[in-house]
Specification:
It contains 27 helices and 25 strands. By secondary structure, the chain is of the alpha+beta class. This is Death domain-containing protein.
Length: 802
Amino acid sequence: MLLGSAGTGKTSLKRSLMEEPFNPHTTSTIVSDVSSVRPFGHKWQTRGNKWSEATEEDEIKELARLFKSSLSESSSHVSSESSLVSDSLDVSPAKSSAKHSDLDAKIKSLLKRVRTYQTTESHVQPFLHIWDCGGQPVYLEILPAFLTPRTMFLLLFDASKDFKEKWQSRQNTPDGEVHFGEVVNESTSDLMAKWMSTIHSYLVKHSKVGSRRSYFMVEHNIDDTPSPSLYCVGTRGDKLNEEKKEEVKKQMQLLYQEKEFSDLVQDVLIIDNTTSGKGEEEDPSITKLRGAIDGFINKLVVKTPVNWVLFRKVLQELKQNVISLSDAIAIGEACHIPTRDVPLVLKFYHELGVLLFYPKIKSLTKKVILSPKWFVDTVGKVFPLEKGWSGGKKWYLLRNKGILVQPLYQEVWQSSGIDSEEIIELLVHFRLAAQVQTELYDSTSKQYFLPAVLPGYTGDPNESQPGYKLRASPVHITFSTGYVPPGFFTRLATAVATDANVKLNFDKDYAAPDIHSKCIYRNRVCFFYGRPSDDFILTDVNTAIQVDVFRYVPESSHPVPFKAVCQQILELLNECCQKVEDTLDIYHGYDPYMLFGLYAYQKSSRRIKYVCQCSPSSEVHYIQDIDAVKQTCSDLVFCIIERRIPRPLTINESMWFKGNFSQEKHQEIPHLEKINDDSTKPAIQKVESTTIHSPTEISESGDDQQKVILTIRDLVEILRVLKNGHFQTTKWFNLGLYLGLFHDDLKIIEDNYPRDAERCLRECLAKWVRDDTEATWDKLAIAVGEVGDTTVADYIRSTKEL
């Protein structure tokens, strides 16, 4: 399976493996291109000693070799299977029907062709299925559904680019043009590490759990504990000298060394696809990669019963995209496969990428998809690449709101050969879609939310709608791998969208005209919770999923305490994360027909971490080792950076924990004068009484302070507070917009003082206090929070006792 971002040369690498000449004008792969290939190696014989696309003749020849090889065996079990070569098939009269007669005829015809094929070679040759996967961001969301452990992964990256540079989606068109798409908010190193950790978590861990095997696999001596293999392949090696290649290799090795997925990665190769098909001039790294694939095949190939191979060949001979499970069972019986074993044989070939079989999906339980490429392409029709849209409102809703309406998917899939409702159920089952009800379209039509089709968000994760009264400090959903697994966030968003208390928040009316109102992205989704006055936002920040909760009305006017809402949302997210992990378990876990229920999926360790707001700092860090069940508002906490100094929770941090601030108004907080260096906790020398206000008091008390009007005489103090709070001066323009200044006035300031952010900030604030007759510290704190500097906003509030 070839994985990697768009434009890294996956299709060119496939051509190199086939020794085909380099083509600089290959078109972008749409979703996935699945090919059946005959590889060569030290004992594989193929035409011209080269890899080649599998043909009908190859299949017949291989069956002939297989039968010849099996007939030479002395095992009675094999002899029984080899009786299939005889003229008649044992289809009992009780089961005779037109359908069975037709199957009987097909199999007899196939066997006749096999018997008449003369071969002197008994070596059985493998068929390799190559999945060349589309690398556009939208398709990376789909691919986790098709990972299987019997796979070698070639993880591609552009070796000529900086590892830390954000990569941009691109599409190569048939006429040679290159269309550049969105700039994705992650670098090459982020993407590579994500895929490594995902493959390890979903395919390696669960294959190591337990050693027992099902009676079926034991009976047929089949290895059902395969392990995947992974090579990191850097492309565009023609742009690098040998010294630079070694440097890139070391950079990639540092990415996975000492990580839990380090054993998965076999090697890092830098290749030059432009040398493909040039014989002795070919890049030795390409030859080495072919050899590695050959070695993996030797490890992967297992003795397969002859009737299984015949079964697969008959399925291919049908030349259909999908058949019923009952037809598959009938074919299995005709090939002397017991009825009870057919689902296991289907699962075996599912893992090899030959077909698709989903016994856990209600609408697909009784179907077998014989052409994976056809099915993936069919599903991919609603995951468009183009920036524009056609088809009017229906396509607009899909590409801009992530809403797929029933008339559109019925139209798109009407000629697919499978019912459109069955396809949509597959998307729902894999949590790529969630049924919702919005006011965007006719309520009589079904609507589904597909966040994966939307563009990505690249702005500040702390950005929020102005005017909130209360805001909880952010929490992060983290993973032991250090990255959010590919596809996890969009599936979490769809799981959340199905909750009865949740509604998607598509558009917000920002006070500032230049701030974009879009709220739904592939990696950032905004929801209403309970009622429109409460919002929560999920944002994929690559290393974690950030959760922000806001309230836009005073606490006294809301029937549910803000603290209770925050804790309910966190509980909801925990439940939804579990649902996503269970779904991914179905992707990659073993078939439920396995009698011993082995291979329990070991999930990546997921934890909730609370963002520490101990000081105004741009560096995100966490409160150390907090137990959410036992923690109360009155308990002291430790910053992960200043581990030896305890402190009380801030108002915003306290929203996630039990306890009532109004009952703890005079909580005594220790003041540190001396720290014992030999102790893990400081010695407390003095205690001072500190007043802690409730959320209601924060938003509605302190009226005298909040009503102090700021004038030009306060400009120096305003600048001093912002400087001490470490406000980022480069955000002065958006700050001005949130303070209510006109865009044109801010542009004049920008033009007068180019590249001088500090001077621009001073002029911006001067104009604000002159023009706004009700300028207050509270207004400034809210505006600072809206541009993303929430810690500075809290610093202003604490300094001015708001």
